[in-house]
Amino acid sequence: QVQLVESGGGLVQPGGSLRLSCAASGTIFSVYVMGWYRQAPGKQRELVATISRGGSTNYADSVKGRFTISRDNAKDTVYLQMNSLKPEDTAVYYCNADVHGMVITTPRRQEYWGQGTQVTVSS
User: Are the CB atoms for 54 and 62 separated by under 8 Å?
Assistant: First the structure.
């Protein structure tokens, strides 16, 4: 079964930095678009950034110039470097990926989500 496993969240002061990682595991044939979303308490989940297999990126306006998404196709891993963090960046961050892999005994392309990692920006 394909899984996305995130790491790198935590508590950081305003102006600080964090780096999130998300690795896809399982029987995988190819990983297409990968991305990060976040959900703050009482709010809907929102897009943070996405990256295609070829490296094309897309960012939410609120994080442009502060966050950088990247990926390592050989490791099926996506990263989110977050700099100049603000209290309003506090949220649970979720990894998302469009994966062609094995689902039990059937090859299938579908969307997967990670379990989420908490990022708290506070002094």
Answer: no
pLDDT tens by residue, the chain, 123 residues = 899 999 999 999 999 999 999 999 999 999 999 999 999 999 999 999 999 999 999 999 999 999 999 999 999 999 999 999 999 999 999 999 999 998 888 888 999 999 999 999 999
Structure tokens, 83: 């700099």
Q: For 113, left (φ over 0), alpha (ψ -120 to 50), or beta? A: beta
- The residue behind tokens 């997967």 is 112
| DSSP string for 16-78 | --EEEEEEEESSEEEEEEEEEEEE-TTS--EEEEEE-TT--EEE-TTTTTTEEEEEETTTTEE
